[in-house]
Amino acid sequence: MFKILKREMLTPNICKMVVSAPRIARAALPGQFLIVLPGEEGERIPLTISDYDREEGTVTIVTQLVGASSAAIIAKEEGEFFRDVVGPLGNPSAFVHMDEEALKGQRYIFIAGGLGTAPVYPQAKWLHDRGVAVDVIIGARTKDLLIYTEELGSACDNLYLCTDDGSAGFHGVGTACLEKLVSDGKEYTQAVAIGPMIMMKFATLTCKKLEIPIDVSLNMLMVDGTGMCGACRVTVAGKTRFACVDGPEFNGYDVDFDEAMRRLGQYKAEEAEEKAKYVK
User: Which of 62, 47, 20 is nearest to 152 (CA)?
Assistant: First the structure.
């Protein structure tokens, strides 16, 4: 049993939870994920680690209400327990394995969209703590949907907010903000995009035009998180890969985004039907 120590609604349908899990916290690295089992008969849900504290023995998850299973997680209150939490799973971000001296010569730009903003935080913090230059772009439809702004503001050199309606920061999408930054003289050696699939596709196209290497996270494709179900199959560099065991991060230039978006949409009808039953 894993106790929920803190619970906070970041938006009306996005919930942040700090969970006691000392062994997982000791082993976790940026880019990895957990599998959460809310109750005795619940579904196993893969969620990217949004933070970890080795001293406190905690991990943080952020869940968006999508269907019945995510509703079961969000319904849990502070002080209650998850039946099980397994992890860390998946491969950590590529920079974790880079030589420290080589890292210091890098300039990273993170492009975060919606729920994808939360898993950007441990990555940006890991790099920033090691003296690596890090800028972050957070995009949302409107200012009320921006999350993790305070946390990321302290974990990077420059934070740029973008809203589609212009209610906060740059008026436009994150890719347009990136293009403006580069046209204004900013230089980046590596980009990382985490967010909606369509956003990552256009972030990749933009970075290709700007000649910036980019990694993307395909965590939203995962279902069982172990490679057994095959739901997260995706073509990367012409070969079939599984987001959960081969990723979740891949070179964006190599990802077949059109196939990934088709796969992502294959359960939408079932998700909506189950959500309607669970959420009154």
Answer: 62
Please write the tens of the pLDDT for every residue from 119-164.
999 999 999 999 999 999 999 999 999 999 999 999 999 999 999 9
Q: Which amino acid is at 65?
A: L
Sequence-separated (6 or more) residues with CB below 8 Å from residue 20: 2, 3, 5, 57, 58
Which residue type sits at 255? V
For 26, other C-beta atoms within 10 Å of its C-beta total: 12
Q: Is residue 276 pLDDT above 60, yes or no?
A: no
- In the block, residue with structure tokens 């599984």: 242
Dihedrals phi, psi of 23, to nearest 5 degrees: -70, -40
Measured between alpha carbons, how far is 64 from 70 in angstroms, rounded to an integer? Answer: 7
Measured between its terminal Cα atoms, the distance across the chain in Å is 27
Provide the residue count of the chain. Answer: 280
Structure tokens at 24: 């997982």
Alpha-carbon span 60 to 41, nearest angstrom: 23
DSSP 3-state of 133: strand
Who contacts 93 (Cβ-Cβ below 8 Å, separation ≥6)?
29, 30, 31, 123, 126, 192, 215, 249
> Cα–Cα distance between 216 and 179 in angstroms, integer?
18
